[in-house]
Amino acid sequence: MAPSSSSPSSSSPAAGAPAGASPVAAEAAPAPARPASPPATGAGALLVPVRGVPRSALLDTFSDARGAGRRHDAIDIIAPAGTPVLAVADGHVEKLFDSERGGLTIYQFDPARRFAYYYGHLQAYAPGLAEGQRLRRGQVIGTVGSTGNASPGAPHLHFAIFRLGPERNWWEGEPLNPFPFLRDGTAPR
Ligand SMILES: [Zn+2]
């Protein structure tokens, strides 16, 4: 990714001042000290969707093979069964789906309905979670498990991002690699 290439504004180039303090909700994450971490995760930055997992612990498994001719198209985040799964961003629950491969899954849409965030192999949904429900970034939406085709001995969250088509169908979209967004604390646009 190239650094910002936006044309500099001619008016008052406030030297080095980070563009205004965000008035939006404070970061809920307890952010441990990470001296060399990338700066500036904006309010829209994706959270790591498993509580307690640092960005630095993530592995890029997007291009791994999964069965005959299939690509993983997702990231697996290893964690003990029962670990809280967090909404990576604001949005709403578009679909709760129990599938053969994914097990208990959640499809979340972002507020602009441009992206779907997919959480798979859940042990359970958060109590009361329902389709259409609004979600706040960081909200607990379920727990890590090994439902579907995940190995019972290796519970993990399968997390994917899809760029939605014009139909906004939860079951179809262009897979985007979640890894760079989760590692760097950015969001797809
Ligand atoms: Zn997976």
From TrEMBL:
Pfam family, one: Peptidase_M23
Native source organism of the sequence: Luteimonas endophytica
Cofactor: Zn(2+)
Region annotation (Disordered) ranges: 1-40
Domain of life, source organism: Bacteria
Listed GO MF terms: hydrolase activity
EC number assigned by the record: 3.4.-.-
Biased composition (Low complexity): 1-31
UniProt keyword annotations, A-Z: Hydrolase, Metal-binding, Metalloprotease, Protease, Zinc
Residues annotated as domain M23ase beta-sheet core: 71-163
Protein name listed in UniProt: M23 family metallopeptidase
